[in-house]
């Protein structure tokens, strides 16, 4: 029985109860052939990258609003040049992990694309070694906001400010995409450090394939009703006080780039959402 054909309320209860679905239930491998390995009856997946190819997978469904959780353990040791991404497109909500030399920090790169326009990058260091163990990376996308969370801690909020004329993705379904690929022209120290292919294959691991979302099929959503309960991921309208404090802690201590403070890039003035303090 698919977890998606049920109401959002029950889906959010499942979120607490379920430890994750097998990979096959909601995802399939899209490229890289046997560089993507599904192990442990679908509880674990590894993606690998060598000098010929990377690999990736995607969700079978498209969603219009979803809470996507994934546990990931990133490429260990020298991962310079590698890029592990986790996100949703056509409008696009991205988590990208830019690898580095042994001992140097990964960069977590986030972006929100709307109607084909991105340029809303924020970057962070992590407060742990993402290669030592699995950690939870979550994208919550509902009609009110988009949240990026790491181990349940919100690191970025992009509010729906359509009432102020700022576009918000909510008309197109999105799929979940994950991949591991070579991006050594820009990923590590802006492209200065190249991928060391003698270290290949590079391997990242994924588990906890939960996908709670409103399935978008033939321009219809399966959550047309019941989406105003603020206790569910779909109805939640704002961060509580404690979560705002956590986000502030991350942004004060670990944010290394924010488009909303890049004067060089926006000499004519920042994009409008930057003037609404909640997005910074
Ligand atoms: C990630 O989420 C799972 C399932 O909720 C939980 O068991 C695990 O402790 C979490 N891991 C971290 C590092 O927060
Ligand atoms: C890699 O390490 C260098 C040196 O610590 C750092 O400046 C950079 O932000 C790190 N991350 C990436 C992806 O380049």
* Ligand identities: 2-acetamido-2-deoxy-beta-D-glucopyranose
Architecture (CATH level 2) name: Sandwich
Query: Spans of 5+ residues with little confidence (pLDDT < 50)?
Result: 1-18
Strand composition percent = 35-45%
Task: Please tell me the overall pLDDT.
Answer: 86
How much helicity do the residues have? 10-25%
What integer value in Å does the Rg equal? Answer: 18 Å
Q: Might you state the CATH topology name? A: Jelly Rolls
**SS-derived structural category:** mainly beta
How far apart the termini lie comes to: 41 Å
Count of strand segments: 16
| SSE sequence, one letter per element | HHEEEEEEEEEEEEEEEHE
Total count of domains: 1
Q: Tally the helices: what do you get?
A: 3
- Name of the level-1 CATH class: Mainly Beta
Bulk shape: globular
């Amino acid at each position: 029985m698919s977890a998606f054909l049920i109401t959002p309320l029950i889906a959010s209860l499942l979120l607490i109860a379920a430890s994750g679905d097998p990979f096959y239930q909601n995802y399939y491998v899209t490229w890289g052939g046997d560089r993507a390995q599904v192990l442990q009856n679908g509880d674990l997946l590894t993606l690998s990258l060598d000098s010929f190819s990377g690999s990736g997978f995607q969700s079978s469904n498209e969603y219009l609003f979803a809470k996507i959780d994934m546990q990931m353990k990133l490429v260990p040791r020298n991962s310079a040049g590698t890029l592990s991404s986790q996100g949703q497109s056509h409008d696009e909500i991205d988590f990208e992990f830019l690898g580095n030399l042994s001992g140097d920090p990964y960069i977590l790169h986030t972006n929100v694309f709307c109607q084909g326009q991105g340029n809303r990058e924020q970057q962070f260091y992590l407060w742990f070694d993402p290669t030592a163990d699995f950690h939870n990376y979550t994208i919550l996308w509902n009609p009110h906001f988009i949240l990026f969370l790491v181990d349940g801690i919100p690191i970025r909020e992009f509010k729906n400010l359509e009432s102020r004329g700022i576009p918000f993705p909510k008309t197109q379904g999105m799929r979940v995409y994950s991949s591991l690929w070579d991006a050594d022209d820009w990923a590590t120290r802006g492209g200065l450090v190249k991928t060391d292919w003698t270290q290949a294959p590079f391997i990242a691991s994924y588990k906890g394939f939960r996908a709670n979302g409103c399935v978008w099929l033939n321009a219809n959503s399966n959550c047309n009703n019941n989406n105003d309960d603020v206790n569910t991921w779909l109805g939640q309208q704002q961060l509580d006080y404690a979560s705002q404090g956590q986000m502030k802690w991350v942004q004060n201590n670990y944010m290394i780039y924010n488009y909303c403070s890049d004067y060089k890039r926006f000499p004519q003035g920042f994009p409008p959402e930057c003037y609404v303090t909640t997005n910074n």
